[in-house]
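lol ok so funny story. i was supposed to be doing the assay writeup but got distracted and ended up predicting the structure for this chain instead. priorities right. anyway since i did it might as well share w the group, maybe its usefull for someone
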Amino acid sequence: MSSTAPAASPSGTRPRVVLGVSGGIAAYKACELLRRFTESGHDVTVVPTASALEFVGAPTWAALSGKPVAADVWSGVHEVPHVRIGQQADLVVVAPATADVMAKAAHGLADDLLTNTLLTARCPVVFAPAMHTEMWEHPATRANVATLRERGAVVIEPAEGRLTGKDTGKGRLPEPGEIFETALQVMTRGAGALDLVGRHVVVSAGGTREYLDPVRFLGNRSSGLQGYALARSAAARGAHVTLVAANVTLPDPAGVTVVRVETTSELREAMLAAAGEADAVVMAAAPADFRPTSTSEAKIKKAADGSAPAVHLEQNPDILAELSRERRRAKQVVVGFAAETGDETGSVLELGRAKLARKGCDLLVVNDVSGGAVFGAADNAVVILSTDGEATEVARASKSDVSHAIWDQVARRFVM
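and the output, tada:
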């Protein structure tokens, strides 16, 4: 997760966030989003629609924000709220965003305070849709979403899961914590930083498992934090993101399609399938280099004489090298990771450069993991090596900041 410290507003005051709430059953989840903004030092003005107030009343919004609720254009007319709220905002987040509100925003309609605010805002705008699957998939909604994205708004892809009643499908509001993380990144980078709009990127994360028997496996210490940060930051920059997660228990990043795998073989199949239509592929996962030649169907028991069973291993496929070799899309950018410790054969960077040449990828992100550094930590320090000989050092920073440094390098190659 990124830091929750608020970025300074251009005015020098606390960052001013407008939280628009439209009339969907998920309106109650916006209370948690509001709390995250206020507790991290943001000045939040809640602008609910009339239908949103049918789900969550104005006293709740006022109590959580510490400010009166701006609900209509007729209250405090002398302050011209339908213009001032949007003009003064550093960020506008609409969560949940119904099909109706997005349609009005796409077509420039302004029949209430929220839609007036959206017309006057010149800051980054984030929509977090929530609706039934059929509404999300309707051509009119898809066209409206495309229009909003073309104009620079971030429209987060809804999550899949339980909807109203017994329905299940795509259209669920992403978790408030993940909306918050995306919104912070959008606000920090500004309205002009959506350089991955229209791009499809594939990211892997976590560590694979190779089973010895039904309960034991060979694995590694990868937490998936860096891969998830890469997926989250790509979504905040406007990309369509597929995240292939190997044994990761983190919450799904907002607006990201998550494919879950366990073994290296499953990771390989999922990555090759997703990479076919991708503009960029980032192998941040840590696949197991070896797997047992055979797997016991029953739990391996301890021997009475104290002897240990022999485990015979074979090498797993090299997924990164295969992705680099068999690119099925022109100008596809492939990024690998190298967790190195250095040894008698070379330093961390020397081993990284050799790996870059061996794997055939465009960029290699090198971690020094001596002493178990990086694994499970909130921050990271890397060197990004490129095939043209450039080495970009990223000093220790949050994994979110490291992710943006990596995407900066990828975005440069899209226009080369």
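The chain has a mean pLDDT of 90. The longest helix spans residues 399-414.
back to the writeup now i swear
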